[in-house]
Amino acid sequence: MLRNYIKIAWRNLWKNKTFSFINILGLALGMACSLLIMIWVQDELHMDRYHKNDSRLYRVMENQHYVGVINTYASTPGILAENIVKDIPEIQMASQALWEESILFTVGNIFEKEKGRSAQGDFLTMFSFPLKEGNPKTALKRPDGLVISQKLADKYFKGQNPMGKTVRIDNKDDVMVTGILADIPETSSLKFDFLLSYERWQKTNTWSKDWENNGPRCYVLLAPNTSVDKVNAKIKNYIKTKNKDSNVELFLQNYGESYLYSKWEGGKQTGGRIEYVKIFSIVAIFILAIACINFMNLATARSVKRAKEVGVRKVVGAFRYSLVSQFLGESILITLLSLVFSILIVLLILPVFNGLTEKQLTLNFANPAFLLLMIGLAMLTGLISGSYPALFMSSLNPVVILKGGLKFKSSATYFRKGLVILQFGLSIMLILGTIVVYRQIQFIQNKNLGYNREDLLYMPLEGDLQKNFQTFRQELEKQPGIKAVTCSQSDPLAVGSSTQGVRWPGKDTTQLILFSQNAVSFDYVRTMGIKLLDGRDFSTDYSTDTSNYLINEASARKIGYKNPVGKELTMWGKKGKIIGLMKDFHFNSLHTAIEPLILRLERGANDTTNYWGNVLVRTQAGQTKQALASMEASFKKFNPRFPFNYFFTDQEFANLYKAENTVSKLSSYFAFLAIFISCLGLFGLAAFTAEQRTKEIGVRKVLGASVANLVGMLSKEFIQLVLFAALLAFPLGWYFLSGWLEKYAYRINLEWWYFAATIVLAVLIAVLTVSFQSIKTALVNPVKSLRSE
């Protein structure tokens, strides 16, 4: 029996090549898209989940309370770990680690910048970053300890055993290799090629030993069977026991959740990358649903072709369940064929997809779970797409069928139209989403930041440049192609330092207000291209500028100064005056509103103390190449033992929104796929409709109907369905897109023309799809149409 069913199914596929091709191609594209998204989602959900202590591994977070706002940070005091592990018995281990750094490695004649971190002694014991050589319990407990990746071992100690060998760090310190890292899994959000001792870093950063300063991340390993709520209750006011004036409350977040759930508002978790996981999961469901709807519609519409087969089988005693089994089996067979093609499609486009998402995704056929996932996807798709056609055809009355009087009931017709509406409604939502995402990204990329990011570049202020910055600056400004030079402790796109230690006459000292702050050198405003609304920039003509300040409009509003220039301001106990009011400019991500900012002068004109941070250089328009050559020559003169590295501000700005750009590109590709699959179904339905109305079209032509009239008649119904789909899709699209845009402090409005453009595009695509078949049918000779065999 099974063999007979397979034979019948294969004959039907071969007999109706066009409709079989449409069904298989539509399902293959739908499943390929869903499969791509599924392996991406699976990878995202498994990020940081491979650590053996996953369920007990947490990071310490801070809620900082200010006037009317709660800010949440992962930065903590630099001495938190060593204290909290002693004071809280439920914490088995604690370790602090720094942000990623680029540090100069020198071994013999080889010197190059490498990316890595500094971490405390128990870091490798808490996390599952295995070592090929060395002891994870002791490798970082030496102040001069260094753990390197196998890549760095091969690079600097080729053919040698690196253990115990010495590496020069930033031309200042010698450290010893105490461990070699195995490859870090792709599912780790923490990436590094080396680990240095945290104690080494702490010796030169004494501010990290103060409870009022934050910076390093703190990770803790809870004892087995420990209640997280109990620990949270204990550590909530822990900082206040060390600093009674603290406004900080601590809490724990599971480390495995921190990658996906990284966004906080008002002290509560509000999202993160999990939003993209949800969005693309919905997109996968949409596209697979569109493909299944194609199958349902075409199978139901063409049921008249198999009506007699159903009637005969029922007359000779076939039960309904056997007919349902047969038709479901046929749909599963088609789906399995589609699965084969979908895998081929995925294999072809996976390298491009990996390039877009910056991942190393693969189809792991050796993994039983993955094979089950694929087979499960095919079976589910087959059951969903074949369910209604199977139930519909098995319900047909054999008497009516064999008398030749089969007609579709109005309920069946309405259901089929409903499927078309649903199909195009989903496609229209994807088109609208693509337009809005693209417009938002363009808005961000083209927004006036309040300074000129074109022709602006920066490079690390390191090595001998730190003590010779002023001389280096003066030489650079004489070079052709260079307009202005300054330095800044932060890079132009991320001022991460903030303080509550700001006072002014009349301030309520009980109110805590947070200000961003940045230490800069002379000509910062001119180099950045920031507009001064009043006052002046820091100048070498004023020796008192080391205690003066520049503020932005947001600071003036927060302080309450209407005309702030000349007014008194004190920061960290240093009293000075406001010498300039800057127009608000964006010094952080556009996801957040512009915050109050205070600029202070890092060093005086005659101060020989080391500078640190970044050198900022404004080049003459169109002379960047010449300026870079001049910079490199001067750099090698002043800092010969360091490689010349620089960053263009406009390129780094684009990198800030890489995730959004990826979403925009993927959305456009998925929307195209959705429309293409919908059009395949529409084409099939149009062909079937034209086939069913062949004689009617012939009569109309004999009576004088033009080709245009016939095309309009055949297209009208489908256009109406698309318009109705748009009316249903727009409210939902508006609701979800409004929610997505709310995460941006600076965003576009959902303008009417986005919806108008979407509906015009959808109708145009539908008309082009249907018209091809309509014109073909309308041009048929009526003699052939009316001929009766």
UniProtKB/TrEMBL annotation:
Membrane-topology descriptor: Multi-pass membrane protein
A Gene Ontology molecular function term of the record: transmembrane transporter activity
Limits of the MacB-like periplasmic core domain: 20-237, 478-629
Record key words, sorted: Cell membrane, Membrane, Transmembrane, Transmembrane helix
GO CC entries: plasma membrane
ABC3 transporter permease C-terminal domain location: 282-398, 670-777
Keyword Transmembrane on entry: yes
PANTHER family: ABC-TYPE MACROLIDE FAMILY EXPORT SYSTEM PERMEASE COMPONENT 2, MEMBRANE COMPONENT OF TRANSPORTER-RELATED
Protein name as it appears in the record: ABC transporter permease
